[in-house]
From TrEMBL:
InterPro entries: MORN. It comes from Phenylobacterium glaciei. This is MORN repeat-containing protein. Keywords: Repeat, Signal. Residues 1-19 form the signal peptide.
Amino acid sequence: MIRILLTAAALLAAGSAQAQAPGQPKPAGTRYVDYAKDPHWVVDPLSKCAVYNTRPDPAITVRWAGPCVNGMAEGKGIIVYSRNNRFAAKYDGGVSGGARNGRGVYYTANFDQLSVNWKDGLAEGLGEWTYGDKSYLRARFYRGEARGDVLYRQGDWDYNGPLNDVGAVTSHGGSPRPARLANVPYQQPRLQNPDGSPFGF
C-alpha cells in the first residue's frame, strides 16, 4: 500500500503521509532553537548540523551532507536517516531551516521512492511514488497526505479513483472494472475488489 511520506517514511513524513498535528512545532528558520529540548530536531554528530523531523523518534539518527547555516541544514543536500544504527531512509533535495523544502526525492529502506515538492518536511503538491515492481502511484499531496483521485499503475492495469474507496481499474483496451485501492501508510497500495477481497488480475 502507499509508502507515503515516506516504510522509513514513517520516520518522517515521508514523505511520507500524515499531516502535522495542530500546534506541532514547525521548522525554526533562523530563530534560536534548543535542540536538546525539542524532539523534532536531530543533530548530525559529525557535521553538528540539525535536521527537522516531522515525526519525532528517539531511535532515529541522521547524517547531513550539505551546507549548514545557523546550526541547521540549509540548501541542497542529502539526509540519511538511521534507526537503531540501521539504514532507514534517505532524502536527496532541497532543505530550508533544517526541514525538507523544495523539490526532492525520498527513498525508503526498500528503495521505493517519492518524488515531490516538500513544505516544512511534508509532501506538498503533485508527486509520484515508484515501487520495486515498477508500479507507481501519482497523487496530489497536501500536508503529507494524498488527497482526491489518484492514478495507480501496476503491470497492465490502471486504477483511477480515490484511496480507500471504489474507483475503476482498466487494462489496456479492456472495459473498466470496479475496484478499491487500499492504502496503509508507508506501504505499497493494494488493489482489491469493492468488497475488500484481493483483486483478480
